[in-house]
Specification:
The chain has a single domain, classed as Rossmann fold, CATH 3.40.50. The chain contains 10 helices and 8 strands. Helix 4 links the parallel strand 4 and strand 5. It is globular and about 70 Å long. This is SDR family oxidoreductase.
């Protein structure tokens, strides 16, 4: 499905990104395997993981090149896309998968922990996507796939920075889809459920947290790749601006924020009439204060 396509996959040295890169190559794509080789919290660097994935692809008869640039820096992100052009002459897809975690309860989170996660997830997704945009525009085709999370779509404890970035990515993707539609360029999001290096950093201090992590361990990273490959292929030409979730063998489509109900008062509102009229009328439509684990509470299939 990806024959003669060139795809950049960020964060492709391990976990979900690695499986996406391998699946892309297996379907005929030439792959730029980008990974800075940091720890799960974004510290250090190591060229080994990206090169190891490139070696796997080449050993299987595919074509790939390694990139160890950081998505969190504008110039470096442009060099990631330039690597595709330099080695393969074009770019057809961007998979924004790179990420780090610095979990902390909101009332303890430092500005540094906030900024580091925003820089990699949200700014990084914009930088790499933007670096490819003019190439997509000029050739009249292209596909973006961004990784969001149910931490942003629904909520989780101790992940204010991560959730804000991941929900921001939804807005980024939706508006890329709108702006680039006329150029036959698509943009979609996936919220993946899978046991990965980053998920392994989730605190497991309570019985509920331990149960959740054990459930996650049964969800393989390779399960995410088929939907990613499809969404980046020409077969998905009518799919853009959408949010999907993959959970083991399950694929879900998420709804998106739209008005649910409204109230009107011809003479306008006062604080008291808001309390007496508006809130009682609207309250039935409130979204419960749930976490991802409360909504996806059954064992993976």
């Amino acid at each position: 499905m990806m024959e003669n396509k060139v795809v950049v996959v960020t964060g492709a040295g391990n976990g979900i990104g690695r499986d996406i890169a391998l699946a892309m190559a297996a379907e005929g794509a030439k792959v730029v395997v980008n990974d800075l080789g940091t720890s799960g919290s974004g510290e250090g660097s190591d060229a080994g993981p990206a090169q190891a994935v490139v070696n796997e692809i080449r050993a299987a008869g595919g074509e790939a090149v390694a990139s160890t640039e950081s998505v969190s820096e504008w110039n470096a992100a442009n060099r990631i896309v330039q690597a595709a052009l330099d080695h393969f002459g074009r770019i057809d897809g961007v998979v924004n998968n790179a990420g780090i975690l610095r979990d902390r309860m909101f009332f303890r989170m430092s500005p540094g922990e906030w900024k580091a996660v925003i820089d990699v997830h949200l700014n990084g997704s914009f930088y790499v996507a933007r670096a490819a945009a003019n190439h997509f525009k000029e050739q009249g085709s292209g596909a973006y796939l961004h990784m969001t999370s149910t931490s942003g779509l629904i909520g989780n404890f101790g992940q204010t920075n991560y959730a804000a970035a991941k929900l921001g990515i939804v807005g980024l993707s939706r508006n890329i889809a709108l702006d680039m539609q006329r150029y036959n360029v698509r943009s979609n999001c996936i919220a993946p459920f899978a046991w990965s290096r980053l998920i392994g950093t989730i605190p497991t201090e309570t019985p509920e947290e331990k149960q959740r992590v054990e459930r996650m361990k049964r969800m393989e990273t390779a399960k995410i790749a088929p939907l990613v490959v499809y969404l980046c292929s020409d077969a998905a030409k009518g799919v853009s601006g959408q949010i999907f979730t993959v959970r083991a063998n399950e694929i879900f489509l998420f709804n998106q924020i739209r008005p649910m109900r409204g109230v009107h008062r011809s003479e306008g509102w006062t604080p008291q009439t808001v309390a007496d009229h508006a809130m009682p009328a609207l309250k039935a439509g409130f979204t419960p204060l749930e976490r991802s684990a409360d909504v996806f509470c059954w064992d993976p299939i």
